[in-house]
Every structure is written in C-alpha cells, then in structure tokens.
Prior knowledge:
Blueprint: H1 3-19, H2 27-33, E1 36-40, H3 46-62, E2 68-72, H4 80-96, E3 103-108, E4 133-138, H5 139-147, H6 154-166, H7 168-178, H8 182-186
Parallel strand pairs: 1-2
Antiparallel strand pairs: 2-4, 3-4
Helix pairs in contact: 3-4
Amino acid sequence: xxxxxxxxxxxxxxxxxxxxxxxxxxxxxxxxxxxxxxxxxxxxxxxxxxxxxxxxxxxxxxxxxxxxxxxxxxxxxxxxxxxxxxxxxxxxxxxxxxxxxxxxxxxxxxxxxxxxxxxxxxxxxxxxxxxxxxxxxxxxxxxxxxxxxxxxxxxxxxxxxxxxxxxxxxxxxxxxxxxxxxxxxxxxx
Length: 189
C-alpha cells in the first residue's frame, strides 16, 4: 500500500469509530477543526522510529495550530509485544528530551490487549486501530479538556461497557470498513 492509504484508513477510523461512537469525547472538536495531523512512518528500526517521533514532537512545538498527531507505524510493529517495547522506548525518549508534562502518548494497535483481559475480549477494541499507532497528545490541552468534562474518570468504564454491549464482531466489521479499498471511497482508479 502507499503511504496515503495508511493516513486515509486511520482518518476513517478516527471519524467512523472514535468520533462516531464517542470513544474519545474530545475527538469531534479536533476533527471538525482539522487540527489532527496524520503521519505514517515506514521505518522499521526502533532508532529511526524514535528519531521520527522526536521530529514530530518538534513539529508540534513549532505548529500550535496542530492539536495532536497520530503517528502511524504500518510496518515492523505488527506484533503487539514488539509494539509495547517501542512504547516503553518512546516514553523514555520523551522523558529524556524534557517532554514530560508537554506531550503524552496514547497507544493503539490492531491486536491491543489490556493486561488481564482475554485476547478476544470486546473491551480491547477501545484501543484497537487499523495500524500500530502512537497518539501524541498535548498535555495542557488534555488538562483543559478534562477540566471541562464532567466525570472524566468514567470515560474508560463507559467505553468498555459500550464495547462489551456491542461485541467483538461489531468492532471487527468497523475496522474492516476503515481499511477497505480507498478507491471505492475516493473514486480513484
């Protein structure tokens, strides 16, 4: 696939899953403002990916109009445990580069599995995405959003209850829809 397909699939996932089903109650505002940046990194070596992640943080430093970045990793991190190792390295890098309190990472993966949950649990779909993805979030924006939201602690529990009510098959179909042939969506041939 070409790089723009990863971006389109991920944007469809944000709109057709995350926003539509209110998995993240803060997503709609950013989608409507077009302030989400989608970046696909095709490097598979951890050192190169971390370098690109740091460059993306620097991009956000210099572009306050961009609220957040979805840092998509379509190759090399398909295995969930390899992805988790990358998440640990990325979190450490942000700390080493004095980004603690500036950016935080949210994690999404096609095989996401919460600790203690069975792999086939519908609850895992709250963090399942078309491709391994690191979501770079501005901490100050998150603090403002959470302060204006009644009972933000209930968001994960509400999402898990919704996922369990809908079931795994529902989410499997949603994810398949997000990664369908984009020529059918865009009219390209």
